[in-house]
Amino acid sequence: MNKDLNGKIALVVGVGDDQGYGWPIAKELYERGATILLACWVPIIKIFTTSWDQGKFEESRVLSDGTLFEIEKVYPIDAVYDHPSQVPDDVLNNKRYQAHPGFTISEVARQIEEDYGRLDMVVHCLANGPEVKNPLLETSREGYLAAISSSSYSFVSFVQHFGPIMNPGGAFLTLTYLASERVIPGYGGGMSSAKAALESDTRMLAYEAGKKYGIRVNAISAGALASRAARAIGFIDRMINYSKGNGPLEKDLEATEIGKAAAFLLSPDASAVTGTILYVDNGIHAMGCSLDSPAFWSTVQN
Hints:
alpha/beta, Rossmann fold, 11 helices, 7 strands
């Protein structure tokens, strides 16, 4: 295994279990030599750390050489708050939050600077839309803005607060989805709008952060994966089957494939790559029609 990330420090934000894309990204970065810090959403951080301590992730932690993936430190975070002054009283008085102070983005950045000095890479694996099951026509202003806040603006805030403590040549990475540019019925609540904003912000941040800090900003548009978060949408299995049946590559998308693509974008091998949306989805983004539509059966058969 190429140890091209030896001595590098990576913060992966949004890992809450060994599902989803954050885990294989963190694991791949570790396998390549990086020190891994996690930032975990406050309401589930105790569940995650307890599961880790009890060995529930043991099988998922196995690396290519038989050793185990290790995490240096886990920080509590709630990425809808940039500064302590923004946190409402009901959150401050919540027992789970009281047990994990210093969870705003600015506080986490300051703590990491105190602990490690500087970072080399930040991976943003955050997305939440409280009304994601609602059609856009039935989405409230509150639900729409909540999706934008947690899924899109949080990335802007991360670059704002972590950019100043990033080593030159460092990199940010976020995860997006094809719903940003194509209609995915059922992916509602403003989440498609949030992903579109996230991709636009990736390009603008690449320019601004590149000029100001000498760092890179990219995104991966990942295909459907049956993670815990994705199952909340309610139709992820159908999306996986659709992608497998209609994409250029008729195979399951593996989480490790996202991990390897992420490691490339974050590594020195991608030193000239910034402002890019990289599709890792078995090619489904390239299709202009569905092969399983009755309208195309004769064409496909021929």
